[in-house]
Design a protein that fits this description.
Blueprint lengths: L7 E4 L15 E6 L5 H9 L16 E7 L2 E7 L11 H13 L3 E7 L3 H13 L4 E6 L1 H6 L2 E3 L1 H8 L3 E3 L8 H13 L14 H18 L10 H9 L4 H5 L13 H22 E3 L4 H10 L1 H50 L3 H38 L1 H8 L1 H5 L8 H6 L4 H7 L6 H12 L4 H15 L1 H25 L19 H35 L5 H13 L4 H9 L6 H14 L12 H13 L4 H11 L1 H25 L6
Parallel strand pairs: 2-4, 2-5, 5-6, 6-8
Antiparallel strand pairs: 1-3, 3-4, 7-9
Length: 670
């Protein structure tokens, strides 16, 4: 939209209420089931950048943005994707609370045109709560591809509220939607509320009685959250007492005759009404290819080979594309920037320890970001965005659900585990979508054992380059065995058990390249923003330790573990110690430290390390202690006690695996 001017974005606190300004801007809440394109529509309406993906549990926090539509200031609130606004806990409870406390002037109910019956249940709930509703009939292009024709006018007539067809990724219908919302918000005749729904004679009679009783008890007072007496009465019938309690009503007497039969009857009739309206408003033609792809990718017979092929394609793409980009960027930096930077630093700070230390940070630090961040992490984020927007990650979650149960998880956990291949930090944050602290702890532990792009750079740059690609695959095989063993052990050790997978089977969709590119850039920008200070600071610290010679004092301390148990050169221990600041620095440190001890030919690792030692080094570096950024995020998400336990566990696993490999690999001819 052309007239949008975002100027404020904030997470909604649970205590936030409608502001009492003299002329408050209208509040518009976006509500919808998961994966209906709600966040994409929010981005179109506000010009904001909320994360979108075709997999469950991605959007987990309500967000408010102040913007302008046709010169009118509007506050737009994006709520987590939910299937209903009754009391159910988790994201549904968070969305319900944010909806109530925002006191919206209009609720935009975003519905999936390909699954109308299921989506309309939430719309009917919103209407029963007395909200003014405008329906955004989203994904109409997908509906057409799947052989569905939706009559928006008939749908609007049956619901009694405006219905606007939209295609959020392309901005189609957004102008009409904003005009409709502003018109409904400004109307004084109850537009957008529709007629009262008929849920049967018994429910209707009791609802009328409760409505009168609620009005008497309110005695002219404004009820909580701006809801009307009928909405409160309906909530009481559905065994939801929170709204009445918030209004200061004594509901004990009102509920003396209630039981579960009313709530069950309302839910049954609401589902029936949703199906009836959907059937009357849509016409199905022949089924299209998206359904066929779902059957193929979620069947064990065909889905598992496809999943293996997808993972192999990711590995091959990272190997070839990442390596080409790394070489090109490194050569360009070393040819064009590094000489000038070296000359400038030398002129300002001299060629002593101070100047060399500054070059470690400015030259080596920035080069590390370019040589790893862009080639491997940016490439992986692009692949991940394609998989998300196609809907394939959801198929992978369904396919792997039975396997994940062996680790005390369900299939949804595979999404952050795949994301961990790019960076462990956002993957740990993504565990918020899991339902229990037990599941989040297990998932976070497995994430730390998943080689991120930085560790992949070490595996490809050291093992694949100097020992051969077959040994790189061997390293990944060892990491898989270690991860599987750790997951099985944690499932047995931690009390409790994993819950069942409850998720919707979203259809495959054609990714929109522009949206994929924006998502990729946004994630990469966040990674650079978080990682760059750590990488640069770590480079300065390491440079100071190296140039002053202080770093060599750690060699004697590490000798029993590094030389005697892991059978690695002493310099390898130094890199393992300090690479926790930045994992991708391990290989560069190894070459730099080795150059001091064995000469300038150390850039070829085979001159001072055997194949067995290179493989052992890569395995240990990939397993032990995640980087400091991951540790910081884990501490915030899981608590420092669990984070310390996970970190210590990875050290023990790395030492055991490294020691065993150091003795086994020579027997295998490495």
């Amino acid at each position: 939209m052309g007239g949008q001017q975002p100027n404020e974005a904030t997470d909604i606190p649970t205590s936030d209420v409608r502001r009492g300004a003299a002329v408050a801007p209208p509040v518009v809440c976006l509500v919808g089931n998961p994966n209906v394109g709600k966040s994409s529509l929010f981005n179109c309406l506000t010009g904001s950048a909320v994360e979108t993906a075709h997999c469950a549990g991605v959007t987990t926090a309500a967000t408010a943005v102040c913007t302008e539509w046709a010169g009118t200031e509007v506050e737009v609130v994006d709520l987590p994707g939910v299937y209903g606004v009754d009391v159910s806990g988790g994201d549904q409870e968070a969305a319900r609370r944010a909806l109530f406390e925002a006191c919206p002037d209009v609720v935009v109910a975003v519905v999936d045109a390909t699954n109308l019956a299921r989506n309309l249940y939430l719309v009917l709930q919103l209407l029963d709560l007395g909200y003014r509703v405008v329906v955004a009939l989203n994904l109409i292009d997908e509906a057409k591809r799947r052989g569905l024709d939706i009559d928006a006018a008939e749908l609007a007539r049956r619901l009694g509220v405006p219905v606007v067809p939209t295609v959020a990724p392309r901005g189609q219908g957004v102008d009409e939607l904003t005009e409709t919302v502003l018109r409904v918000a400004a109307s004084a005749n109850g537009a957008g509320r529709g007629p009262d729904r008929d849920y049967g004679e018994a429910v209707g009679e009791r609802l009328d009685e409760l409505t009168v009783a609620v009005m008497q008890r309110l005695s002219g007072r404004r009820p909580a959250f701006g809801l009307g007496a009928r909405a409160i009465a309906m909530a009481l019938l559905e065994a939801d007492t929170a709204v009445a309690a918030a209004s200061g009503l004594d509901v004990t007497e009102l509920l003396r005759r209630e039981d579960d039969s009313f709530a069950l009857e309302i839910a049954r009739r609401r589902h029936l009404l949703a199906r009836t309206i959907a059937a009357a408003s849509s016409t199905a033609r022949q089924r299209r290819g998206a359904d066929t792809w779902w059957r193929i990718t979620t069947s064990s017979l065909t889905g598992i080979p496809i999943l293996v092929g997808v993972m192999a394609a990711i590995f091959v793409t990272l190997f070839f594309v990442g390596d080409l980009l790394a070489q090109a960027l490194t050569s360009a930096w070393e040819a064009a920037v590094s000489p000038l930077l070296t000359e400038a630093v030398g002129a300002l700070f001299g060629e002593g320890a101070l100047g060399a230390t500054i070059l470690w940070g400015l030259d080596g630090g920035v080069l590390a970001i370019l040589a790893v961040g862009i080639p491997y992490i940016l490439t992986f984020y692009f692949i991940l965005a394609l998989l998300e927007d196609s809907g394939y990650l959801n198929a992978a979650a369904f396919l792997t659900d039975r396997l994940m149960h062996h680790f005390g998880l369900h299939g949804r956990a595979v999404i952050p585990l795949i994301a961990a291949g790019g960076c462990n930090v956002p993957a740990v944050i993504a565990t918020r979508s899991l339902t229990s602290m037990r599941e989040r702890t297990i998932a976070a532990a497995l994430i730390t054992l998943t080689p991120c792009s930085a560790r992949t750079a070490v595996i490809l740059g050291a093992v694949a380059l100097f020992a051969g690609w077959q040994w790189a695959l061997f390293v990944y095989g060892v990491l898989i065995v270690v991860g599987v063993g750790a997951g099985l052990a944690l499932n047995r050790i931690l009390p409790g058990q994993g819950g069942p997978l409850v998720m919707e089977m979203f259809p495959f969709r054609r990714p929109v390249l522009g949206q994929v590119a924006r998502k990729t850039w946004r994630r990469f920008r966040e990674f650079v923003w978080d990682a760059a200070p750590i990488i640069l600071a770590g480079s300065f610290i390491l440079g100071a330790l190296y140039e002053t010679g202080a770093i060599w004092r750690f060699t004697a301390v590490l000798a029993p573990v590094v030389e005697d148990w892991l059978m690695l050169p002493a310099v390898a221990g130094l890199t393992l110690l300090f690479a926790v600041l930045r994992k991708e620095l391990a290989l560069q440190l190894l070459i730099a430290f080795a150059a001091v001890t064995v000469g300038t030919h150390a850039d070829d690792l085979t001159t001072f390390m055997s194949t067995s030692q290179i493989v052992t080094y890569a395995v240990v570096n990939s397993i032990y202690v995640p980087c400091v950024a991951t540790i910081a995020v884990m501490g915030r998400e899981l608590g420092w006690r669990r984070t310390a336990a996970v970190s210590l566990g990875t050290v023990m696993l790395a030492l055991v695996a490294g020691g065993v490999l150091a003795r086994l690999l020579p027997l295998l001819g490495a």
